[in-house]
Design brief:
This protein is of the alpha/beta class. The protein has one domain (5-211): Aldolase class I (TIM Barrel, Alpha-Beta Barrel), CATH 3.20.20. Helices cover 45% and strands 16% of the residues. It has helices at residues 19-29, 43-59, 70-75, 90-97, 110-118, 142-152, 168-175, 184-187, 191-211, and strands at 5-8, 33-36, 64-67, 80-83, 102-107, 123-126, 157-160, 179-182. Helix 1 (19-29) packs parallel to helix 2, helix 1 (19-29) runs parallel beside helix 9 (191-211) and helix 7 (168-175) packs parallel to helix 9. The protein is globular and about 45 Å long. The two termini are 24 Å apart.
Length: 212
Amino acid sequence: MDYRLYAVTDRSYLDGISLSLAVELAIRGGATIIQLREKHISSREFYKLALEIKRVTRRYDIPLIINDRVDIALAVDADGVHVGQEDIPADVVRRIIGPGRILGVSAKTVDEASKAERDGADYLGVGAVFPTPTKPESEAIGIEGVRRIKEAVRIPVVAIGGITKENAYEVMLKTGADGISSVSAVFAGDIEKNTGWLLENINRAISDRRCS
């Protein structure tokens, strides 16, 4: 699995274009995973939207992860699901989705990360690294917090929260993370250029880590 650039959708950032086109632009720019995140629509609407986005991700052979909703992930045969600490426990989700789908779990402490790994998580979404308007209630753990979790687990770590085009290189370089996840840095403005710029900086940080 390629976790380098994990794009999380948010239709509030789109300037009059469809989410399916926005996702396609993100993938064309370099997004390696797409997470469909919808908090304020009905289950039927979520299901229909997930099917629409899945057609795009399948065409480009990019994994589609559904945020929170295990039922939607199963209903549309998505590649995986991502759950937070307040959602259905990770070990229960793993039993429901089986071994063949991707399970991501949010974590902001070493204890949460270690438990998620034991419970069957395939990767961790770790943060918030910096304060973020997407989740204003989430206390930032900083670069050092991500680095500690990365050193404590064996599964991939994706840094999330407040990551921008300006700080993505530093986050990747200093945390050892396997990738970064972002909403606004991908979907606000020129989506294809945003993802291309982000991926360039991610790749540069990975290369510089290897040389150090």
